[in-house]
Every structure is written in C-alpha cells, then in structure tokens.
C-alpha cells in the first residue's frame, strides 16, 4: 500500500445529526485546502441505492478555501475514478484527500466495501475510516427506532457527538455509555457547532501509511473494552449492557463488540480460512472486523479488516509496534456472541491441526501453498 494512495474518509450520521455542519467547519481549515468533498444531494435516498441507479447533476463547486466539492456522478466508483483527470491541472491532481458525505439514511457498509475492494479505486485511494455524527439531543430515540443510525454508529472508527450544548448532561453520559457498549474501540469526541480538529478525524486506519507501523493502541483502544466490561459486568454484548430497561425494541440489544486475544502465533492461512468460512455463514451480522495477527514464519504482523461479507486484502507490515506480539481481533457484530465466535475458532483450530479443515479447501492446501 504505497503512501501516495489518497485517503478517503466516509462521513455519515443520521438525518440532521450535523454532518454538513462538521464538513463546513473542516473545509475552512487551511490544512484541508486540497480536499475533494463528495456529497450527494438526494436527502432521502441512500447512497448504496444511488450507486446503482441515479445520475444526478454533475455540479462541481470550488469553495473559497480551495476545497473542491462535487456531487456523486453516476456512482461512487466512476466519480472517484474520474476525479483524477477531472480535478487535475497541468497533469497534477488538485486534491490529496477525499471526504464523502453520505445521506442520513445511508448504509455505510456497501460504500466501505467498495472503497476497500474495487480495483479502480484501490489503485489510487485507500479507505481511511468511517466518521459518524450522533446528535446528543435525540440519539437515544434515533438509535432505538432507526436501524440505519445504529449501524452507522456501530461501524464508526470515530464518533462525533454533536449538539452537546443542547443536551442534558445526564443524557450525554447515558448516551456515551450506550455507544461504549455498541462500539468501544471508536474514538468519541464531543463537537460544538461542527468545530473539530481535522487530525482527530483522519488517520483512522489500522496503521500509519508513512511508517507502516500499526497503531494498535489507537484503533483497538483495548482499555475501552475493559471499561465497557466494567460498566456492564461482562462483555459489552448481546443485551447484557446497561439497557436492561423495558423497551424490548431496542435494536442494540443485539449489537456489540468484543476483542479476542490469541497468545500463540497462528498457522499461516488459518485465520483467513476461518474468517472466510465465518463470513460466508454469517457475514451479514459481522458489521466490522479489524485485527492484527502474529502468523508463524512472518516477521511482521498481518492486518485484516472486513465489513460484513467483504474483506480488505490481508496485508503484511514490516514491524510490530511493541513487544506485545499477540494476535488481536475486534468484532462488532449483530447478535453473534463472543462465546460463539470463540467456540467456532477453537473448533477450527483443532480441525486444522488434525488436517481436517477443508470447508473452503484451505486446510488441504496449506502444505502446498503456505501463504
Ligand atoms: N446547537 C447546535 N446546533 C447544531 C450543532 N451541530 C449542528 N447543529 C444544527 O443542527 C442542524 C442540522 O445540522 P446539519 O449539519 O445540517 O446536519 P446533517 O447531518 O448534515 O443533516 P442532513 O444532511 O439533513 O441529514 C443545523 O441547523 C445545524 O446548525 C451543535 O453542535 N449545536
């Protein structure tokens, strides 16, 4: 993954939660002059829908700050693909960062999948992270009733909690606890009228593209899992959270996160084969997977990332960030308990060690093809 790949940030959040306010603030920052902002103007229509059917106006605005702004043309793939020649002068691209603002009802998953895997995009761009705005004044109800909003929060790498000035402090605390249970590893920031430091929204990937050193401490945020655990007595998962209250309709009774830590180096190919099997069985409910793996025969760690059924190609990095060489995997799931995943992985490892693992042909191939 060359350093020159252009980072792409997905800015999402429910209707009226403050996305445009954040964006307006960001594009005024001098450091972001060379940013291409891609928006879509279809209020009520999700971007995933748009990817397939709509051909909106092809309007491009150059903002006074120097940022470029365009609406989605056709689909996201062609917009990003064409952006290079459309926004270049003298053969040189005019932007070195992209922010995509989705509609409030968008499902971020297909967009992230597109950014992670479509060849014409991954040759030039790298997915940086999902930033989700959450309106503190009404998020409790929105999360209760709007599955899209919940998914946007669950998939975020960074949560921007907006309108704290209008919210009751007790409500803010309660919501922060709820978000901790849904997505402990996401960075959480309170934002007043969109004022947020760009640095806290960018560089959300699993490693620093310049040094190729994984920033595990930041993206895993292990302590937050412990906090979530302390707050709820055990894993922030499957309705064991603080919401034992009486509203049975809460969707996030089933959404939660956990982190598996594996002490021993893993056989080459094992996790790939196991994950492929898991994703084909229950990818829909694996909202987000991120991990760093210690694999036998590799001097550096492997990093993995996935969104529902789709995984980013596994990458090997040159070095570990610290002496801690354990494999760590974060799962944000819908209705899949940690115990289920642990049992599945345990059984898979046993079968693998006995050479019986062939649900995806991986076990049988591993001698011949040790990658
Ligand atoms: N008081 C207060 N108002 C805010 C804050 N952030 C945003 N707003 C207001 O909330 C309203 C909605 O903000 P937008 O930025 O348009 O929200 P959005 O997510 O882009 O909205 P849609 O594109 O319609 O989904 C606007 O009137 C903003 O001025 C904040 O921190 N405090």
Automatic annotation (TrEMBL):
It catalyses: GTP + H2O = GDP + phosphate + H(+). SUPFAM superfamilies: Hypothetical protein YjiA, C-terminal domain, P-loop containing nucleoside triphosphate hydrolases. Keywords: Chaperone, Hydrolase, Nucleotide-binding. InterPro entries: CobW-likC_sf, CobW-like_C, CobW/HypB/UreG_nucleotide-bd, P-loop_NTPase, Zinc-reg_GTPase_activator. One of its GO terms (cellular component) is cytoplasm. Signal peptide: none annotated. It comes from the Bacteria. Residues 255-349 form the CobW C-terminal domain. The keyword tRNA-binding does not apply. GO terms for molecular function: hydrolase activity; nucleotide binding. Pfam families: cobW, CobW_C. Zinc chaperone that directly transfers zinc cofactor to target proteins, thereby activating them. Zinc is transferred from the CXCC motif in the GTPase domain to the zinc binding site in target proteins in a process requiring GTP hydrolysis. Belongs to the SIMIBI class G3E GTPase family. ZNG1 subfamily. This is Cobalamin synthesis protein P47K.
């Amino acid at each position: 993954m060359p350093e020159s790949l252009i980072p792409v940030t997905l800015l999402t959040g429910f209707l009226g939660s403050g996305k445009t306010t954040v964006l307006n603030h960001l594009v005024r920052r001098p450091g972001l002059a060379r940013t291409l902002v891609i928006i879509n103007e279809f209020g009520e229509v999700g971007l995933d829908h748009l990817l397939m059917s709509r051909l909106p106006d092809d309007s491009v605005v150059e903002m006074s700050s120097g940022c470029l702004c365009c609406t989605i043309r056709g689909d996201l793939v062609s917009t990003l693909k064409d952006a290079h020649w459309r926004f270049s002068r003298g053969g040189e691209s005019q932007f070195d960062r992209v922010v995509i603002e989705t509609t409030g009802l968008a499902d971020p998953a297909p967009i992230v999948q597109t950014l992670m895997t479509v060849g014409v995009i991954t040759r030039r761009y790298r997915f940086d992270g999902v930033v989700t705005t959450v309106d503190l004044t009404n998020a409790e109800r929105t999360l209760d009733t709007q599955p899209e909003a919940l998914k946007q929060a669950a998939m975020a790498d960074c949560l921007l909690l907006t309108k704290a000035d209008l919210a009751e402090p007790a409500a803010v605390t309660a919501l922060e606890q709820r978000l901790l249970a849904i997505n402990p590893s996401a960075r959480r920031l309170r934002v007043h009228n969109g004022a947020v430091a760009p640095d806290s929204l960018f560089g959300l990937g699993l490693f620093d593209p310049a040094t190729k050193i994984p920033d595990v401490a930041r993206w895993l945020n292990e302590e937050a899992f412990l906090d979530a655990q302390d707050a709820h007595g055990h894993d922030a998962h499957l309705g064991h959270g603080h919401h034992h209250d009486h509203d049975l309709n809460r969707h996030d009774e089933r959404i939660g996160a956990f982190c598996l830590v594996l002490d021993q180096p893993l056989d080459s190919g094992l996790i790939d084969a196991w994950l492929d099997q898991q994703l084909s069985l229950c990818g829909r409910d694996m909202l987000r997977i991120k991990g760093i793996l210690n694999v036998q025969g590799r001097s550096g760690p492997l990093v993995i990332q996935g969104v529902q059924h789709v995984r980013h190609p596994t990458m090997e990095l040159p070095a570990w960030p610290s002496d801690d060489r354990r494999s760590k995997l974060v799962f944000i799931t819908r209705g899949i308990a940690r115990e289920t995943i642990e049992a599945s992985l345990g059984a898979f490892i046993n079968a693998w060690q006995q050479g019986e693992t062939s649900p995806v042909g991986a076990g049988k191939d591993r001698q011949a093809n040790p990658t």
